């Protein structure tokens, strides 16, 4: 789960991490009032969407008068913002964050993320603040400092020194300020079961202090039960409507760009299914894991969500029957086609408990656009052929 910048900064403040003063608003009128309340003389008008690169997309602008605040708020609020972290359709800006200007001497990049290879969090920092970290990593990787932090020992002073020296900080007070800031940021990450925290830019003021000028946070969904205060920050309007609907039925769904809808039980099998479709010359239209208890209702809902995508030309149902027998799944698929109007070919491959019985049920169902696959490769090949009209 991701949150907005203004929400991330609320969390930062609880841990004593310095941020500029700011007020979230949802109208132009309130934007001007917020600017008046902050006092100025300089304000930053920021679009609030769940994506980075807002400044490059025109979603972050500086105002030097209340009139400019009003003008910029009119421009940004309601715009569709496209950045390198959004889809081509972009995101609708429904909230603004009006923030005080800051004394900026230098800009840095600072984040805490999970390194799955090391199996521990890492602090990642760079002197190239304000830029896309992906571009820095590709063009000047030597400018990125990486400091792994083993949760068994937590953040220690040597972590902070490696970070400060790596960023080229020579002033003792600035080094201490950076170490203190990084220590608190790691605490935010660990205490709140975050998956990612990114500050870009982190600015150094003329006094050698560090301020989070930006804030981006993502959390482990499985741990939200331990953090009801963070769960309340969820903004469903920023999430894919189909993914939200799928979650209500216990389905894990992610839309992709292909033309073969996938319905699978188990994340590993789902990934293998998509790889096999690609290997056979097709392209998956989605990731959809129906879990270990597929029934007529969940399968019908899966069909309904998949078919909302106009690009889908065939659906490949690839389910391994373990706890739930294949014959029950087959009957569920047949019932689901009665509940939902499935107007594209459906290729079904079932394996596991009672697979032969399931195959007979499907073959005797007399459903015109239902095709049985003998195995994973055969099913994927038939799905690709069906999508191509063969």
Short description:
The protein has 3 domains: 1-20 and 103-237, ATP-grasp fold, B domain (D-amino Acid Aminotransferase, Chain A, domain 1, 2-Layer Sandwich); 21-101, Dna Ligase, domain 1 (2-Layer Sandwich); 241-387, Succinyl-CoA synthetase domains (Rossmann fold). Helices cover 36% and strands 24% of the residues. It has helices at residues 5-14, 28-38, 66-76, 133-139, 157-166, 172-191, 228-231, 241-248, 267-279, 296-306, 326-339, 355-363, 376-387; strands at residues 2-3, 22-25, 43-47, 60-63, 80-81, 91-92, 96-100, 106-115, 120-126, 144-148, 194-204, 210-212, 216-219, 252-255, 260-264, 286-289, 314-321, 346-352, 370-372.
What does this structure look like?
This protein has 390 residues and is α+β, with helices and mostly antiparallel strands. It has three domains: 1-20 and 103-237, D-amino Acid Aminotransferase, Chain A, domain 1; 21-101, Dna Ligase, domain 1, CATH 3.30.1490.20; 241-387, Rossmann fold. The chain has 13 helices and 19 strands. The chain has helices at 5-14, 28-38, 66-76, 133-139, 157-166, 172-191, 228-231, 241-248, 267-279, 296-306, 326-339, 355-363, 376-387; strands at residues 2-3, 22-25, 43-47, 60-63, 80-81, 91-92, 96-100, 106-115, 120-126, 144-148, 194-204, 210-212, 216-219, 252-255, 260-264, 286-289, 314-321, 346-352, 370-372. Strands 1, 8, 9, 10, 11, 12 and 13 form a seven-stranded antiparallel sheet that branches. Strand 18, helix 12 (355-363) and strand 19 (370-372) form a beta-alpha-beta unit. The chain is elongated, with a radius of gyration of 25 Å. The two termini are 41 Å apart.
């Amino acid at each position: 789960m991701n949150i907005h910048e203004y929400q991330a900064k609320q969390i930062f403040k609880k841990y004593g991490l310095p941020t500029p003063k700011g007020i979230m608003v949802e109208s132009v009128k309130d934007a001007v009032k917020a600017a008046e309340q902050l006092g100025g003389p300089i304000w930053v008008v920021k679009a609030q969407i769940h994506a980075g690169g807002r400044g490059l997309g025109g979603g972050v602008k500086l105002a030097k008068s209340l009139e400019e605040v009003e003008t910029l708020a009119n421009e940004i609020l309601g715009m569709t913002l496209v950045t390198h972290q959004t889809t081509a359709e972009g995101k609708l800006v429904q909230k603004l964050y009006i923030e005080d200007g800051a004394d900026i001497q230098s800009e840095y990049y600072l984040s805490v993320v999970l390194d799955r290879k090391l199996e521990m969090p890492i602090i990642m920092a760079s002197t190239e603040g304000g830029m896309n970290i992906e571009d820095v990593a590709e063009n000047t990787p030597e400018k990125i400092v990486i400091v792994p932090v083993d949760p068994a020992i937590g953040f220690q002073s040597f972590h902070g020194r490696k970070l400060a020296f790596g960023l080229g900080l020579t002033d003792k007070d600035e080094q201490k300020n950076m170490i203190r800031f990084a220590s608190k940021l790691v605490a935010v990450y660990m205490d709140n079961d975050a998956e990612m925290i990114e500050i870009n830019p982190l600015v150094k003021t003329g006094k050698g202090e560090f301020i989070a000028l930006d804030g981006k946070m993502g959390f482990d969904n499985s741990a939200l039960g331990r953090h009801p205060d963070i769960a309340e920050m969820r903004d469903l309007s920023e999430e894919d409507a189909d993914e939200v609907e799928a979650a209500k039925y216990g389905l894990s769904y992610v839309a992709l760009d292909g033309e073969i809808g996938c319905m699978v039980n188990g994340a590993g099998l789902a990934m293998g299914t998509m790889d096999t479709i690609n290997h056979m010359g097709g392209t998956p239209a989605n990731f959809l894991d129906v879990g270990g208890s597929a029934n007529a209702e969940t399968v019908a809902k899966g069909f309904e969500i998949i078919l909302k995508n106009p690009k889908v030309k065939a659906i490949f149902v690839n389910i391994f029957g373990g706890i739930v027998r294949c014959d029950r799944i087959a009957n569920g698929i047949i019932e689901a086609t009665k509940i939902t109007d499935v107007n594209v070919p459906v290729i079904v491959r079932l394996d596991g408990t009672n697979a032969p019985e399931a195959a007979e049920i499907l073959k005797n169902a007399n459903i015109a656009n239902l095709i049985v696959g003998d195995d994973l490769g055969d099913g994927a090949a038939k799905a690709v052929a069906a999508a191509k009209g063969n």
